[in-house]
């Protein structure tokens, strides 16, 4: 499922216009993004949790040329699946 399919599903199930459903989905995603940017953690019980992991700088290799390069430190969002979702997927 992609974002437009999610918006369409919400619009159909809750009898909303596509535009209104899109605003709701965007509000949820923007709120989640802002929480992660501010260093917070998102936990949706039964679904999973999102956290930001910090990765240190390291020496890497350009796969095309083989040249050794410095990879800068970075932060990446990480999703950990919840127990209930994992069980539902495995038992379906």
Give an account of the 3D structure.
The protein has about 90 residues and is of the alpha+beta class. About 40% of the residues lie in helices and about 30% in strands. It has helices at about 5-15, 20-35, 85-90; strands at about 40-45, 50-55, 60, 70, 75-80. Helix 1 (about 5-15) crosses helix 2 (about 20-35). The chain starts with a helix and ends with a helix. Belongs to the bacterial histone-like protein family. Keywords: DNA-binding.
Please trace the helix and strand order, writing H or E for each element.
Answer: HHEEEEEH
Through-space gap between termini: 17 Å
Please indicate the count of domains.
1
| Helical stretch tally | 3
Just name the CATH architecture.
Irregular
Overall pLDDT level: 96
Overall, the morphology is elongated
Count of DSSP strands: 5
Helix-and-strand structural type: alpha+beta
- Rg is 19 Å
The biggest beta sheet is recorded as: 3 strands, antiparallel
Helix content: 40-55%
The first-level CATH class is given as Few Secondary Structures
CATH superfamily membership, which one? IHF-like DNA-binding proteins
Pfam family, one: Bac_DNA_binding
InterPro entries: Hist_DNA-bd, IHF-like_DNA-bd_dom_sf
GO molecular function, one term: structural constituent of chromatin
Keywords: DNA-binding
């Amino acid at each position: 499922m992609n974002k437009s399919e999610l918006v369409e599903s919400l619009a159909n199930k809750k009898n909303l216009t596509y535009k209104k459903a899109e605003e709701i989905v965007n509000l949820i995603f923007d709120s989640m993004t802002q929480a992660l940017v501010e260093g917070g953690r998102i936990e949706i019980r039964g679904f999973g949790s999102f956290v930001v992991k910090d990765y240190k700088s390291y020496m890497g290799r350009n796969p095309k040329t083989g040249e050794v390069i410095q990879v800068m430190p970075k932060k990446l969002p990480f999703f950990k699946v919840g127990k209930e979702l994992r069980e539902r997927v495995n038992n379906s």
